[in-house]
Amino acid sequence: MSEYKENVPKIRFSGFTDAWEQRRLGDVLTEKRRPIKMEDDEEYQLVTVKRRNEGIVSRGYFKGKDILVKNYFEIRTGDYLISKRQVIHGANGIVPKSLDKSIVSNEYLVSIGNKNITTEYWTLISKQPNMYRQFFLSSYGVDIEKLVFDVEDWKKRTIMIPSLPEQEKITLFFQRLDNLITLHQRKLNNVKKLKAGLLQKIFPKDGEDFPEVRFPGFTDAWEQRRLGELAEFSKGSGYTKNDLTEGGSPIVLYGRLYTKYETVINDVDTFVEMKENSVVSEGNEVVVPASGETAEDISRASVIGKSGLILGGDLNIIKSNQEIEPIFLALTISNGTQQKEMSKCAQGKSVVHLHNSDLKQVNLLYPKLEEQQRIGKLFVEIDHLITIHQRKLKHLQEQKKALLQQMFV
Fold it and tell me: Which of 86, 296, 307, 392 has the fewest CB atoms within 10 Å, measured from its CB?
């Protein structure tokens, strides 16, 4: 990697020292028209370019006689499309293999890379947000208005490009990085699917007292009792988002149960200045939101994994007795038959509420303590695996973002 010089990127592969060249888009891209004669009984796949640089998608297959406008053009894999009507919204993209030989109307500018740029390199840089600003903002800093996209003006806009060998090196690097990101995204999705599948089978279905899947050695039917007979109940203290500070005492806010936390909460990223009479965790409390947007959303729970966390307002707090393992309780509240029962108890329209008095009446179906512990441990391990993949994926995505900013001029 080289030191920074004028007209070269901050980070560069070894062996490349020449300055990047400034080229007009018209010098690296060639407008391409492939007119087709449409037959009435033939089927044609039409495509459209989504806004916000989200790529090209199919509009479906249509017979020639059903397509009113006849001046359509064929597109090929690697073609670059711009929607002249929606350019202000960043509607541009590269044609993927799956849409090869589809058709578009003359409302699209279709171009291909020439000898000065590789298709793969153009595919890479055309997806970058800074390219949108460079390609589609006028010299006055105002977006090009709809229906007045000036092709000739666009061709005069400039970009900085390296030699073909350096283009290939950069492209290969980001292809490998993208493959790695895709791999970790796939692993994350697979673990989440595994968790979702197990959650559907490890708790008995309505009207049954045996689950579909259970650990070896456990054969007894699950027992049923009211939750109010198995736990004590309390409420969190009245902190809100307005009380948050950059530092201070860690706090669990009910809204984060929907967006942030898995089954067990050990680490939080929200802090407040502690008030008098605050409710502070001792560890192993099960917390359930007292309000939410829908009855389904509100029927969820997490376990406070350690002491010293402030429990904010709008949290129902459940302290189970020795017969009920807290992690199992949180899981079954969020996923078992109790989840549906709690959803029915939630009251309200625009905002629904769930009270401790409702929770006490929930019929809890549970196995012996040892089986509860095995179930809890399994899902803690799965959540840990999910967290690992999420962190790795986030790290790779941030790494890619940083490199994109430093490997181009």
Answer: 307
Q: How many CB atoms lie within 10 A of CB 133?
A: 12
Query: What is the rounded CA–CA span in Å between residue 401 and residue 397?
Result: 6
Please answer whether residues 330 and 304 qualify as being in contact, where contact means their C-beta atoms are separated by less than 8 angstroms: no
Instruction: Count the domains in the chain.
Output: 3
Neighbouring residues of 267: CB distance < 8 A, sequence distance ≥ 6: none
48 falls within a domain: yes
- Which residue range is the domain that position 172 belongs to? 162-216+367-409
pLDDT digits (tens, 9 = 90+) for 271-308: 999 998 899 999 999 999 888 777 666 678 899 999 99
Kindly report the CATH number assigned to the domain that includes residue 35. 3.90.220.20
Instruction: Provide the b/e sequence for 205-238 (b: ≥16 CB within 10 Å).
Output: eeeeeebeebeeeeeeebeeeebbebbebeebbe
DSSP state of 280: B
Dist CA 277 CA 271 (whole Å): 16
pTM score of the predicted model: 0.78
